[in-house]
UniProtKB/TrEMBL annotation:
Keyword presence, Phosphoprotein: no
Taxonomic lineage from the root: Bacteria, Bacillati, Actinomycetota, Actinomycetes, Kitasatosporales
Record's keyword annotation contains Ligase: no
Native species: Streptomyces solicavernae
InterPro entries named in the record: DECR2-like, KR_dom, NAD(P)-bd_dom_sf, SDR_fam
Protein name from the UniProt record: SDR family oxidoreductase
Superkingdom of the source species: Bacteria
Length: 285
């Protein structure tokens, strides 16, 4: 009995993990596709929590808008860096620019994506390649570059990838995106194990249908398509990007310090409620 820890000792052992902060103040995160939609929402939430945010993407105007919004409402600073994640050399330059400006990097959000609805067997090789290059290859290049920097710093850090539930259940009409997102999930689980000894955690968030211009135009561009998607969501509404950002910040933060290699689904119950597609030669959304 005397070998048992006293209640005080138990409290003392656990105290490092009780009431700790979120850990964003003064840290630096790189968000790809940060100029719009979910990427912008995550960037703004990180900056509001005190982090510096390097916003990357292909369209400079949209990046500048996000950085201006960070300037108005964030307590951290923003930096816009135009870059295409499909280019590994550009990704290395992106990470170097982040380190040059803020001195270090603490995490990455793989959010950049491309998507359109097309029957799988009618996709051109270029159509397949465009989406797989952005989603899978781009996420790998960014993860590799940031993880190398984190290893060199010896600080640990957190990588979050935005995927979709069809990474595991598939979805007619988006074979390129579903295959790429499944690859990102497998990458996350593999590197979570390889990089845990360096204090680097990797997780995914899987949003359901979210009110963003990009996904709306790519996936539910007509009123009919939108109503069809809405009918599949038990919660009866689309997500607000801020709701996805909240879950994302948890996974990036110190509050999830023992959580790695996993995926948090934020979809209003959609995938659990949508188990049967039926027989179709079309590409429903
Ligand atoms: C058939 C199409 C097509 C379409 C493009 N392609 N759109 N094929 N139907 N609607 C084909 C082109 O014909 C071309 O093939 C090839 O794809 C590459 O097209 P480009 O326009 O040259 O490429 P690029 O400029 O790099 O554009 C990439 C893109 C584009 C993915 C096609 O849509 C894009 O950049 N999107 C970024 C924004 C985005 O999509 N956001 C939505 C993410 S939402 P050929 O053979 O003609 O050369 C998301 C949510 C998922 O992912 C989860 C939901 C629940």
């Amino acid at each position: 009995i005397t070998d048992q820890p006293t209640p005080d000792a138990v409290v003392s052992v656990n105290s490092a993990y009780v009431n700790r902060g979120w850990g964003f103040e003064g840290r630096t995160y790189l968000v790809t596709g940060g100029g719009s939609g979910i990427g912008r929402a995550i960037s703004l939430a990180l900056a509001a929590a005190g982090a510096h945010v390097v916003v990357a993407g292909r369209t400079p105007d949209k990046l500048d808008e996000t950085v201006a919004l960070i300037g108005k409402s964030g307590s951290g600073q923003g930096l816009a860096v135009p870059a295409d994640v499909r280019d590994p050399a550009a990704v290395d330059d992106l990470v170097a620019a982040a380190v040059e400006r803020f001195g270090r990097i603490d995490g990455l959000v793989n959010n950049a994506a491309g998507n359109f609805v097309a029957p799988g067997i009618d996709l051109s090789p270029n159509g397949w390649r465009a989406v797989v290059d952005i989603v899978l290859n781009g996420s790998y290049y960014c993860t590799r570059a940031v993880a190398r920097q984190l290893r060199a710093q010896g600080t640990g850090g957190s990588v979050l990838s935005v995927i979709a539930t069809y990474a595991w259940h598939g979805h007619p009409g988006t074979v390129h995106s579903a295959a790429a997102k499944a690859g990102v999930l497998a990458m996350t689980r593999t590197l979570a194990v390889e990089l845990a000894p360096y204090g680097i955690r990797l997780n995914c968030v899987a949003p359901g249908p979210t009110e963003t211009e990009g996904a709306g135009a790519a996936l539910w561009g007509t009123d009919e398509a939108r109503a069809g998607v809405l009918a599949t969501v038990p919660a009866g509404r689309f997500a607000d990007p801020a709701e996805v950002a909240d879950a994302s910040l948890f996974l990036l933060s110190e509050r999830s310090s023992y959580l790695t290699g996993d995926c948090l689904t934020v979809d209003g119950g959609q995938w659990l409620g949508k188990q049967v597609y039926g027989r179709t030669a079309e590409a429903p959304v």
